[in-house]
């Protein structure tokens, strides 16, 4: 590496003389991962990666590290202050900017290390070719510029591997395992788990990209035809703001669904990472524009998502890290075709249910329609992005009763809410009461300066579903239409034409 590059500023440590001790590996809580490499001179070097400092690798040198400070132009036209590399590989096979790495903290804990390939000739991930895509680097993974330097990723915060579909009981120090399912090589790297499914990292060896493998254990009463009919609905969806289902396989015990991998974490973690947990109006507008376009795509096909928003909303994902992100609506386990029809199967999380959903939850003879419910949930998300708090789910106010002003149906089953503590049940009562009986407050110190946003958010949070804004009327709102050409141009430039 040229001596002109300021090593201290790019987080580069030369440990060729004395190997690090375990304490030196984790000497700073801000360091999430390290990339270990050996340069052309045979010197061992370590590159540090933290939440607030992305790392760029390429042929073009830089006098300073590109920081997370970006010049933000309207509606997602982002340009970095530096188009050069914080770590230089002086090799003709390396692109000027070959790849960029981020550390992301998702809402379910831990750290994601995301690597975006920006090169002309791709990268090798553990020997597998990847091109023009974003990947997750797990502890021990290696990336290599073809015919050039190799980098080993070492996570400083390690968690035990789960091997749900590989071993009934994960070993104390498990080694990485793989399982071939069709054209996919599924690894024992577990990205998440729930009551009914686990998600593992997989490699699509034919398409040179990673994928997420969602494995659902089949119940004995499940009919294969019924399960695959629901999967076929998901396979037919193709929109830049809908998490794509690439393929599905099943056997006697499991259904495996292979999904487009998003590497930027989830939307709520992104919001919380900002000052006062609020986004600026232009970024909130760009994200909301994508969300409404994604919902319009679903509603035009008479599909409602219903389960879109949850306490840990991993189902609104950032496709890659960075400001003005591309978002994807994910987790369609609760998606419903014929969404214009009334349903009596209430699902989702209390704080994101519309009034008619709360009433249907407490009174089983009542139903609600999925599409207006999606619009209500989108309004809640819009409120959170701009106000930094939930419109209904907040601390108890003085004089506020924790009980309803009406009694729930006698056949109401609290098990629908999951395994909740008494405190959680009381909190849900308050939230439900506010949704059913209260009106949304729009504090003037936030909303008076953005009246068009206030109008759209209020129209999405209308009590009566028949009077509530639809995705079509939302896209025609003044908040979007006043700058629609700029929004559409930024959307086409960064995301696609849908």
TrEMBL record:
Keyword Phosphoprotein appears in the UniProt entry: no
Pfam families: FHA, Pkinase
Top-level division of the source organism's lineage: Eukaryota
Domain Protein kinase, residue spans: 185-480
PROSITE patterns, alphabetized: FHA_DOMAIN, PROTEIN_KINASE_ATP, PROTEIN_KINASE_DOM
Residues reported in the UniProt entry to bind ATP: 214
UniProt cross-references to SUPFAM superfamilies, sorted A to Z: Protein kinase-like (PK-like) (SSF56112), SMAD/FHA domain (SSF49879)
Domain FHA, first and last residues per copy: 73-130
Key words of the record: ATP-binding, Nucleotide-binding
Translocase as UniProt keyword: no
CDD domains: FHA_MEK1-like
Family, per entry: Belongs to the protein kinase superfamily. CAMK Ser/Thr protein kinase family. CHEK2 subfamily.
Protein name, entry field: Kinase-like protein
Provenance organism: Rhodofomes roseus
